Amino acid sequence: MSDDNDDPQQAGFSEAPHYHGHRERLRGRFRNVGADALSDYELLEMVLFRALPRRDVKPIAKDLIQRFGSFAEVVHAPEARLREVNGIGDTVVVEIKLIAATASRVAKGQVKQRTLLSSWSSVIDYCRTAMAFADKEQFRILFLDKRNQLIADELQQVGTVDHTPVYPREVVKRALELSATAIILVHNHPSGDPTPSTADIQMTKSIVDIASTLGIAVHDHIIVGKNGHASLKGMKLM
After folding, report:
1. What does the DSSP 8-state code read for residue 227?
2. What is the pLDDT of residues 59-71, one digit of tens each?
3. Superfamily for 116-231?
4. Is the N or C terminus of the chain more exposed, i.e. has fewer CB atoms within 10 Å?
């Protein structure tokens, strides 16, 4: 692994003309046609321009896409694995993680501004942005008021690659503390396959049983993964 300090700018060299021309052409396509005109590695190149201003970043971008699979998987990749790629150091890691944080903040903002049940696609987009590419299981709860607007969004547990301990009574206790009248359960499957397990179904039913006796509705349990999402309510499993 080479660090960002390998950037020739640090050594006093000027930017090679063909790098400059390529960057300007890429920026021009982005300005005139938009991001959809760029491939994943080209969009990633643009992210790397600022971190490595005097380096040909195309090989690095292509290496990242080949290694992780897509733009989304690159920006959500663990920092340690990013640093395994030749040319990636602290500056590049920060730039890449800034993209992931920005996407999550935007998606969360869209959810907060709306009544959740009337903008279900925003809920799914936010959940996938926040959790789909995590390398460990996470369990998140969206707490809603009587108008189905978001009171709080809390990450309750982080587990292993295939298990997260969830305690139904603690889930309901937290809902009562926040005066929530409804909740949406969310967790991820790092394997990429969002298909609910038997344990997922049983845990959901336990939460529903306890919550219902206290007047708290469980609107859904959403499982997200790199390959999509699953809704236990949509699958009639709750």
Report:
1. T
2. 999 999 999 988 9
3. Cytidine Deaminase, domain 2 (3.40.140.10)
4. N
